[in-house]
Amino acid sequence: MAPLDPNSRSPPSIPKCFKRFSTKETSDISNSNGITEETNNISTDGFQIYLDFPLVQSMLTHEKRRNKYFEKATKKQREYPRSTDGWIKTIFIIKGRALDRIMLPWAIVTLNAVLWSIVLYFVDLPAFQENYDRWQQMYSIVANSTLAFLLVFRLYRVAMRFWETRTMWGKILVVTRGLVSSILIHGDHAPEHRDRAIAYIAAFAVATKHYIRGEIIYPDDELAGILDRDELNRLEISPHSALYASNKIRQQLKQVFMISTNTPVQLAAAWSIQMQLMEQNINDLLEQLGGMEKVRTTPLPLVYVAQLRTVLLLYLLTLPFVWVNYWGWSTVVVISLTAFALLGVEAAASECEIPFDKNRTNHLELDSYCYMVVKSIQQLVKDHADLQIQTMNEANTSEEAMEASNGRLTPSEIDNLVNAISPPRFDANYREPWNGYNDQVSILVDEYPPITEPDDRRHDRIRTLDFTSMKPWSRRRFLT
């Protein structure tokens, strides 16, 4: 591929997913997806101002589709009670307690309590009765303290893993925002490759979610207006979709900041610095991906979990020997509740150890995080386009005002101009034009009246001013 020259660039070709839509085409797309004008936050007429910004237009056109997908994907986890919802909502829940992870051991412990209560009720064990105090002392010193330590350590380690994973997704969001902002500011000279890089930054977050969950299907609506179906298929067939997305980001950025023999030295140096900073951002994204892979593939060592569960189960199975003399038939109920409490702690640790399952209410809301990434990117590219449109409108308004005045200066502008000129540059015999500010302004002085003359005579110093050939910024610079 030929190197990109910032001074001469052909109009970019627009990818399929960035196809420009007319008002009628946009309306047809909205109707085909069940979206009406009343429910869409942005009217189709508003898309016309973004004809020169295909990524913005495409993302806004398909925003409703993406919102509906993410709303459905996050509904189960989003609508379930949270730990901050108060006592009533958090106590009277069943599914969020991960009871499916403890039903088998809980049933075994409860059935064991029933059997031993029957045996000890009908059969006298004199040896056990005589050593009851020693038996109880052993439980309070050895079993209780050891079990408490094992459970607390396991729960603490799982809580740390859960928080570390959430921090990784927060870092992805922060780095994504900074990277997209930098690309928008420094990549205006290559809009096509700039937009493709931004599109794959959004795809990286989504690909990370699917890869961590072990999913290989990418719904069309998830990245609607960002990637087309062919690009999604390439993500699906890739052995590591997140790495594929990161490689695409690098490829597009390389085209944006391609340095050729025609690139000025100062510009080449600036582009090299920007590319290094963006490479660091991409490496930060990959670092978070690696951290989540570590969490997914490295649970707590088996020896620790096996020892904890063995001690816990033995403790619960031998409780009837200790409590039956105190509680009688009530021992079954007491042991069942005790088992529910202790096994519940183990279930909580097991539930949150690898928090990536979309069907578990206690796991991280990865779809919500991806939605935040896509939404942030859409806002950044839209704000950038709005600023460019505003700048172009202001420049056009200034040009139209100058054309309407035929390049003539108002008295106040002449005063500012004369005050900016140093008198020693002129004399009464000077009749050649003086060129200043890189030949953008030409002033022909007819005569130079004495300084003591009235101010109204000073306007005669300037006969002509080639103001129409000046750029807007040059006019402001000259007159100030």
Describe this structure in words.
- The chain is mainly α.
- The chain has a domain at 407-479.
- Helix content is 63%, strand content 1%.
- The chain has 17 helices and 2 strands.
- It has helices at residues 23-32, 54-61, 63-73, 75-79, 87-91, 103-122, 126-130, 132-186, 191-213, 229-237, 241-256, 265-297, 302-327, 331-351, 366-404, 411-420, 472-479, and strands at 434-436, 441-443.
- Strands 1-2 form a two-stranded antiparallel ribbon.
- Strand 1 and strand 2 form a beta hairpin.
- Helix 8 crosses helix 13 (302-327).
- The radius of gyration is 36 Å and the shape is elongated.
Short note summarizing the structure:
Helix content is 63%, strand content 1%. With 480 residues, it is mainly α. A two-stranded antiparallel ribbon has the order 1-2.
User: How would you describe the oligomerization state of the chains in this entry?
Assistant: single chain
End-to-end gap? 46 Å
Order of helices and strands: HHHHHHHHHHHHHHHHEEH
In percent terms, what proportion of residues is strand?
under 5%
Arithmetic mean of pLDDT: 78
Rounded Rg:
36 Å
- Main pleated sheet: 2 strands, antiparallel
- Number of discrete helical segments: 17
The level of helicity is: 55-70%
Largest sheet, spatial ordering of strands: 1-2
Name the poorly predicted regions. 1-14, 19-44, 422-480
Shape annotation: elongated
Query: Which structural class is indicated by helix and strand composition?
Result: mainly alpha
The strand count comes to 2
